[in-house]
């Protein structure tokens, strides 16, 4: 084939132009480009409702970025292997680049496509783009993978070197002519009846520019107090809120690391959060069923005792525990949830309601804008006690003392549980303890305007501990 045969860049969870190794290598070749995104019909797990919203806007932003540099973005829906064959047949493309992904089903698809295309004489290259270190690059002395975070991260930092991020290409010279692209609107990623998504995007700006803006604003002050403020859900600037941007690859961990590594305030706390993400992907790589099976098989013996009505009350933020309810309503309304609150809400479902962690993982998969395949599953298993480096099952978050400690003025609860806004702080996290006259003055009628607790904390804790003890017998 002529040296002018095109090169395909297959975008996945790497929806950016800067620091995109697959794109960089393709541009470097000097060949005409085919910039492709595939909505895969044979994906192992489809995006949840909220993350489809983010995907729609992220693809829109990337399309605009590509067109501003003179390029064309091709959107296709179907099986990637079939669509790639069609494009190769149509254009004579003899080279393809993509950035690696780590879910089991995705690796199987990629391996099969690579074998097939190489057998046809095409050049196929995969690249590291969305992790600082590949799962197989950090090994224990016996050659296995680390199952505890602290030694993993200690070892990882001695192994990896973080190069400077790659610049975005100045121009994108794509194949001449119209290859044909799906209309993004036809993918119906956005809800319409009702349109519950618009309010979520008031707080976020999907896309590469939005990611850079989010990082810059975080570094311009809030980062200096990250270690102290990160556990406070009432402080909206206390965390970076970069997780959706990272999940869709609108920013790379290398870009974040490069601009923060020499900052005294973030060298430990903030970059350790990047480390937890890396660790989660290592766990997913070696345990492809991390979202569906207990990491520790011993946990299979645990006797769950779910109650459908109580589980639904948890989903809707109507448990009668204000801090939990605030968190679940924040998730439902914004598609995001503060990390401290995530732990408390997860613990409540698993240990107060004796509901299988997979129920919660699935709900967060559907309602989180980020819905990260590694972090979501690993974090739920961590809280359950069934995962690697897990919080022990007998660690049960007290939902009202957590609220009192991390939402001291009650601003977070009052924002998302406004029916309690007039209650004094003393009773805000335990409204059932308020005297009748205090409730009346605040306009609160337990069981009417705000639910009574669906379980008693002390009794639920004892039941959970008993169930755990029985499963270990």
Q: Can you tell me about this structure?
A:
Helix 10 (269-286) crosses helix 15, helix 12 (322-334) crosses helix 13 and helix 14 (357-367) packs antiparallel against helix 15 (375-384). This protein has helices spanning 21-28, 49-68, 80-91, 104-119, 149-159, 208-219, 226-229, 243-247, 253-260, 269-286, 308-316, 322-334, 339-352, 357-367, 375-384, 399-406, 411-416, 425-428, 436-442, 457-472, and strands at 7-11, 33-40, 73-78, 95-99, 123-127. The mean pLDDT is 93. The protein is α/β, with parallel strands linked by helices. It has a five-stranded parallel sheet, sandwiched between helices. The protein is built from 20 helices and five strands. The chain folds into three domains: 7-128, HUPs (Rossmann fold); 131-164 and 208-286, Alpha Horseshoe (Serine Threonine Protein Phosphatase 5, Tetratricopeptide repeat), CATH 1.25.40.80; 297-472, DNA Cyclobutane Dipyrimidine Photolyase, subunit A, domain 3, CATH 1.10.579.
Strand ordering within the main sheet: 3-2-1-4-5
Mean pLDDT: 93
Q: What fraction strand?
A: 5-15%
The number of helices is: 20
Query: Class by helix and strand content?
Result: alpha/beta
Q: What would you report as the Rg, rounded to the nearest angstrom?
A: 24 Å
Shape: globular
Q: CATH superfamily assignment of the largest domain?
A: DNA Cyclobutane Dipyrimidine Photolyase, subunit A, domain 3
The second-level CATH architecture of the largest domain is Orthogonal Bundle
- Give the SSE order as H and E letters: EHEHEHEHEHHHHHHHHHHHHHHHH
At the third CATH level, what is the topology name of the largest domain?
DNA Cyclobutane Dipyrimidine Photolyase, subunit A, domain 3
- What's the structural domain tally? 3
Biggest pleated sheet = 5 strands, parallel
Q: Into which percent range does the helicity of residues fall?
A: 40-55%
Unreliable spans: none
Number of strands: 5
CATH top level of the largest domain?
A: Mainly Alpha
Span between N and C termini? 67 Å
